[in-house]
Write a structure and sequence with these properties.
2 strands, 13% strand, 62% helix
Length: 47
């Protein structure tokens, strides 16, 4: 995710712990792709 966002000139502003937890929840289907999109909108900024 960091690479994808970086290539698109964005940075994640969340703590690494929170990023890992969110990715684990996505992999476990606890978080949907739509939820991830909303999370990224709230936790990333353009460079």
């Amino acid at each position: 995710m960091y690479v994808f966002l970086g290539l698109n000139s964005y940075c994640v502003n969340a703590e690494e712990k929170k990023v890992v937890l969110t990715m684990e929840q996505l992999a476990s289907s606890i978080v949907t792709q739509h939820d991830l999109a909303i999370w990224l909108e709230k936790n990333s900024t353009p460079r």
